[in-house]
Amino acid sequence: MRPKRILVACEFSGVVRDAFLDRGFDAISCDLLPSDSDRGKSRHYQGNVLDIIGEEWGLVIAHPPCTYLCNSGVRWLHTRFGRWEQMRRGALFFKSLFEANTPRVCVENPIPHKYAIEIIGTKYSQIIQPWQYGHGETKATCLWLCNLPPLHPTNIVPGREGRIFRLPPGPNRSKLRSTTYKGVALAMAEQWGALLNNESGFTSANMPITQ
Ligand SMILES: C[S@@+](CC[C@H](N)C(=O)[O-])C[C@H]1O[C@@H](n2cnc3c(N)ncnc32)[C@H](O)[C@@H]1O
């Protein structure tokens, strides 16, 4: 049997991919952008995730763009030209990732508005916060889970602020705001990795990574 691989879709940072690599899993990231991390040289597919989503994956974790789907931007649907169509396309993209023909899927996004939920066809499974995973920040983050248990908090900390969200304009602002928190990535790799280790076909934490 070929070892099962993990796809981290819509990830330029490599944060989730590297958390799984560090636990011995065969993981790659994919984004239209190049990978920000060194390991991305051999562990990143730069291109459209829809080109590779149909391959054989044991687990897909996806972070699709939220610009037209999040509740905090719902007012623009009514005031900016073209937004309804952009929203429809964004929600269909989200849906195609969540409905990937893969045994286990997690799609991550901020709290969506009702129009997006209508197209995606299902509400999120849980809401997590960075402060539950060691970062003194607030950012309500929804997870849509298929065959995965809810993520448990690993390190609840005080100092709950929306610092990253209030960053002043700058060249890296949008990247910084959208990069997955390391504590969340570690929790995914730890908790869901333990689940995968009990399944046959996954590269175990003690085996070398296949390049
Ligand atoms: C909200 S950001 C997620 C960033 C992620 N949390 C990280 O730490 O890198 C959404 C990402 O989706 C990527 N993206 C959008 N459409 C895509 C597609 N069709 N295929 C692959 N990546 C795509 C964008 O380039 C962007 O980097």
Report on the architecture of this protein:
With 211 residues, the chain is an alpha/beta fold. Helix content is 30%, strand content 15%. It has a seven-stranded mixed sheet with strand order 3-2-1-4-5-7-6, with helices on both faces. Helix 2 (40-43) links the parallel strand 2 (27-31) and strand 3. Helix 4 crosses helix 5. The two termini are 17 Å apart. The model is unreliable at 205-211 (pLDDT under 50). Bound molecules: S-adenosylmethionine. The site of S-adenosylmethionine has 19 residues, from strand 2.
Bound molecules: S-adenosylmethionine
- Give the DSSP E fraction (strand runs of 2 or more residues): 15-25%
Q: How many DSSP E strands? A: 7
The parts where pLDDT drops under 50 for at least 5 residues are 205-211
Percentage of helical residues? 25-40%
- End-to-end Cα distance, whole Å, is 17 Å
The number of helices is 7
Whole-angstrom Rg: 17 Å
Can you tell me the overall shape?
globular
What's the order of the H and E elements? EHEHEEHHEHEEHH
Keywords for this structure?
211 residues; alpha/beta; seven-stranded mixed sheet; 7 helices; 7 strands; 30% helix; globular; disordered C terminus; binds S-adenosylmethionine
Write the layout of secondary structure elements.
Blueprint: E1 6-9, H1 15-22, E2 27-31, H2 40-43, E3 44-46, E4 59-62, H3 74-79, H4 83-98, E5 104-110, H5 114-120, E6 126-128, E7 141-146, H6 173-178, H7 182-197
Parallel strand pairs: 1-2, 1-4, 2-3, 4-5
Antiparallel strand pairs: 5-7, 6-7
Helix pairs in contact: 1-7, 4-5
The structure holds S-adenosylmethionine.
S-adenosylmethionine binds next to β2.
